[in-house]
Amino acid sequence: MLRIPCPHCGARDEAEFSYRGDATVTRPGADGDIAAFHDYLYTRTNPRGWQVEWWQHAAGCRAFLKVLRHTVTHEIRAVVTATGTLEVPPA
User: So what's the pLDDT on residue 89?
Assistant: First the structure.
């Protein structure tokens, strides 16, 4: 089980959180074409290594968070609020 350090509530079990997806993907604008929106919804990479992800502390403060997590080891290196920035370390 992952222990995610919520900036508001402290370290909590993964069961209190909902995974919301890749935080590096940008939603296409309203004037975008159908193909761009299709790719946004369905075309995803499955990276091996560090990834910035959206998580919501659903059973706690309800905040949306950005989490820097390694997809192989599940190590969590950093957590910030939704407006914060996280950089993926070089491989």
Answer: 87
Give the chain's radius of gyration (CA, Å): 14
CA distances from 73 to 5, 37, 48, 55, 64 (A): 17, 31, 10, 18, 23
**Using an 8 Å Cβ cutoff, are 63 and 57 in contact?**
yes
Q: Mind listing the pLDDT tens digit for each residue in 35-64?
A: 999 998 899 888 899 999 999 999 999 999
Domains of the chain: 3-81 (3.30.2270.10)
Token representation of residue 7:
């900036």
Q: How many residues does the chain have?
A: 91
pTM (two decimals):
0.87
Q: What's the pLDDT tens digit per position in 6-19?
A: 999 999 999 999 99
Measured distance CA(62)–CA(6) in Å, rounded: 10
